[in-house]
C-alpha cells in the first residue's frame, strides 16, 4: 500500500483535510471519505458521466481525477444545489419535465447542465443537446432531459436577455 498524503479538499465551500493514498480517485474521496454519496459511480473510466462534478466551475469526471489533484480547487457536488434540502430551479425542472426515471445518471446530468448554464446562460436547445450527449442515460431517451435544461435556461435567461 502506498503512503498516504494529506490533502485539503474544498467541497461545496467547506474545507476538509483528508489522508488519502495518491491513487484514490476524487469520486471515491467524495463518496467514501466525505460521505457525499449524491455523486454516482458508473463505469469508472470516464465514459458514462455519472460522476460529473464541477471543478472550478467546469464539469469534470470525478473518476478520472485523483483526490490529490483536487487540492486548491473548488469542487461542487450535486449536494451543493439544495443546501437547505429544497430542490433548486434546475432540479425542479427535471421533476416537472420528467427528466429522470431511475435517477442514476441524474446527479451527473444536473452538474453537467449547471456547468453549461453558468458558462452559457443563454444556451439554446441544440447546444444543450450537444452538451447533454456527453453523459449516458439508459432510461429517458434524452428528450425530457433536454426539455428540463432548456426550460431552466429560458427561466434563468429570458428571451429579451438572449443575444
Ligand atoms: S463513473 Fe466516471 S465517467 Fe463513468
Ligand atoms: S434516468 Fe436512468 S440512467 Fe438516466
Can you offer a commentary on this structure?
Strands 2-1-5-3-4 form a 5-stranded mixed beta sheet, with helices on both faces. It has 2 domains: 77 residues, Beta-grasp domain (Ubiquitin-like (UB roll)), CATH 3.10.20; 73 residues, [2Fe-2S]-binding domain (DNA polymerase, domain 1). The longest helix is centred in the C-terminal third of the chain and has 14 residues. It has 163 residues and is α+β, with helices and mostly antiparallel strands. Bound molecules: FE2/S2 (inorganic) cluster (FES) (2 copies). One FE2/S2 (inorganic) cluster binds next to loops.
Strand order of the largest sheet: 2-1-5-3-4
Number of helices: 5
The low-confidence runs, each spanning 5 or more residues with pLDDT under 50, are none
For the largest beta-sheet, the strand count, sense and barrel status come to: 5 strands, mixed
Quick synopsis:
By secondary structure, this protein is α+β, with helices and mostly antiparallel strands. It folds into two domains: 5-81, Beta-grasp domain (Ubiquitin-like (UB roll)), CATH 3.10.20.30; 89-161, Orthogonal Bundle (DNA polymerase, domain 1). The protein has helices at residues 26-33, 89-96, 106-119, 125-132, 143-156; strands at 5-11, 14-20, 52-55, 58-61, 74-76.
Amino acid at each position: 500500500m502506498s503512503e498516504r498524503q494529506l490533502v485539503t479538499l474544498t467541497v461545496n465551500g467547506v474545507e476538509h483535510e483528508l489522508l488519502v493514498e495518491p491513487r484514490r480517485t476524487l469520486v471515491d474521496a467524495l463518496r467514501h471519505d466525505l460521505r457525499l454519496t449524491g455523486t454516482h459511480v458508473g463505469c469508472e473510466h470516464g465514459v458514462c458521466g455519472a460522476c460529473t462534478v464541477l471543478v472550478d466551475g467546469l464539469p469534470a469526471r470525478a473518476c478520472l481525477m485523483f483526490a490529490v489533484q483536487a487540492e486548491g480547487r473548488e469542487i461542487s457536488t450535486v449536494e451543493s444545489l439544495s443546501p437547505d434540502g429544497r430542490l433548486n430551479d434546475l432540479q425542479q425542472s427535471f421533476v416537472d419535465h420528467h427528466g429522470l426515471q431511475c435517477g442514476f445518471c441524474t446527479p451527473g446530468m444536473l452538474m453537467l447542465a449547471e456547468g453549461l448554464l453558468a458558462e452559457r446562460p443563454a444556451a439554446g436547445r441544440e447546444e444543450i443537446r450537444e452538451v447533454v450527449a456527453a453523459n449516458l442515460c439508459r432510461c429517458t431517451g434524452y428528450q425530457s432531459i433536454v426539455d428540463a435544461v432548456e426550460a431552466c435556461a429560458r427561466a434563468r435567461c429570458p428571451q429579451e436577455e438572449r443575444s
